[in-house]
Amino acid sequence: MTDLQDLMARRQAVIDARDVDGLLGMMSADVSMMWLPVGTFNGHVGVREAMDMLYTAFPDFRRTQDSLAITDGTAVVEFTATGTFSGGPFDGYQPTGRTGEVIGAEIVDVGDDGLITSVRTYWDGMQMARELGLLPEEDSVLDRGLHGALNVMTRARRVIRL
C-alpha cells in the first residue's frame, strides 16, 4: 500500500469514528475544504466547524469510500453518504427528520509533508435537498409550480434588463 493509500484509509477510519481531532491531525494548518454546494471552510477552525455541523445535523451519518484513484500527491474518492437529518441545522436549514443518500466525489491534495492541503467535495445538492424534504419531490405538483415560478422570475428579469 502506498503512503497516499494508507493516508486515505486512515482518513476514512477517522471519518467513520467521527474523530474530528484525528482528521485535523492529518491536515495542514492552512487546509482548505470546499463542499460544493455548501461552501469553503478554511484552516483547522473552519474544518472543525464544518464537521461538527455535519455530525450534529446527521447523528447517524455514514460514508463509504466506493472507489479510490491516486496520482502524484492527489487522491480522488467516490463515496456514498447516508444520514437522517434529525439533529441540528445544516447550512442554515432546520432538520426535517428525513433520511437521504447522496453519491459524491472528492479531490484530496496532499503536500510533501504528507498532510492534506485541500479537499474539494462535490455532490448533487438538489438530489440531497429532495431526499431530505427541503425541495419537493421531482415532477410533483409543488415541483412543477416551483419550476413555473422560477421561469416567471427569469422572464421578468429579462424584460427588466431590456
Q: Major β-sheet, in short?
A: 6 strands, mixed
The helix fraction, in percent, is: 25-40%
Return Rg in Å.
18 Å
Q: What low-confidence regions span 5 or more consecutive residues with pLDDT below 50?
A: none
Q: Indicate the structural class.
A: alpha+beta
Shape assignment = globular
Give the total of beta strands: 6
Number of helices in the DSSP assignment: 5
Q: Order of strands in the sheet with the most strands?
A: 2-1-6-5-4-3
- Could you tell me how far the N terminus lies from the C terminus, measured between alpha carbons in angstroms? 61 Å
Strand content: 25-35%
Mean pLDDT over the full residue set: 95
Order of helices and strands: HHEEHEEEEHH
Write the layout of secondary structure elements.
Elements (H helix, E strand, L loop, with lengths): L2 H14 L3 H5 L2 E10 L2 E4 H15 L4 E10 L2 E11 L14 E12 L5 E8 L1 H7 L9 H21 L1
Parallel strand pairs: 1-6
Antiparallel strand pairs: 1-2, 3-4, 4-5, 5-6
Give your account of this protein's structure.
By secondary structure, the chain is an alpha+beta fold. 38% of the residues lie in helices and 34% in strands. It is built from 5 helices and 6 strands, in the order H-H-E-E-H-E-E-E-E-H-H. The protein has helices spanning 3-16, 20-24, 43-57, 125-131, 141-161; strands at residues 27-36, 39-42, 62-71, 74-84, 99-110, 116-123. The chain has a 6-stranded mixed sheet. Strand 1 (27-36) and strand 2 form a beta hairpin. The termini are far apart. The model has no long low-confidence stretch (mean pLDDT 95).
